Amino acid sequence: MSIDSINKAKTKKTGSGSNALSILNAGQVENSSDHSRKPIHIAMFSGGASSAYVAYYIVQKYGKENCVLFFTDTLWEDIDNYRFMDEVAEYIGLDITTRIDGRTPEEVFHDIRFLGNSRMAKCSEELKVRQTLIFLEELRDEHNLEPILYFGIGPHESHRAINLQNFYEHNPIEPIATRFPMIETFTEDLDTKKIIRDEWKIALPRMYGLGFSHANCAGRCVRGGLGHYALLYKVWPNQYMEQEAMEERFREKFNKDVSILKRNSKAFTLREYRELMDKDGIEKYLSEKDDTIPCVCSYS
To answer: Quick one: which of 55, 107, 49, 48 has its CA closest to 76?
Structure first.
């Protein structure tokens, strides 16, 4: 199958800056131990501005015939993310290659009997990481192509880049090379959102304008943290209530005192949080900090 054919297969369901750069450069692997494979440049497309710009960059550098725009769909994405991704794909001249496990995050939680929370998100492992690894091995085994992965991670997230590099060096059957152009190539302060909005004339995903730090899972990201869920309740109360109902279904079915959020290292349900916000006012909790990290679906 040609690279063009891969790109046209839109959906297949398969059941601190310079210091970080030196670490990344030191750890870079060769494209493959099998040099007979042709390199294929994979833009890991999250639906965000930085990953969109990285996709544009590799197409300009290597040609669209040598690139793939890759997206893993959790089936919880905001509808405007799809609009944004389609417009970006049209602008850079690549179809989106999408992989879908077929389950929602809630279905994953029930299958593994573990509720995703602010410290651990098995939904990401199942719906994104696993689907990515399957796709990459198919490129090697079925098409004799050697993937090189490109991520839209900036210097402020350099710890993620190091983790990603380590993951793809050790978890696939053979190491897979990773690249981070926002750290390694663009040394100036590149405003990707401004470029996309003003030069490409593409409206950014609406969740940016609503105040969310990322657009994963339409605000229902289980690793979002307290402030994130306060914002979700303010902006999309129905989405919040859906998450609350999901949490209650899990607690009742498995008879476990578990929750998506934590407070003082203890279970803190979305119902309890909503009642607190209703009593005190949402504004008080919009900047609430905790020891969680935002969901980044780290390895895809």
So the answer is: 107
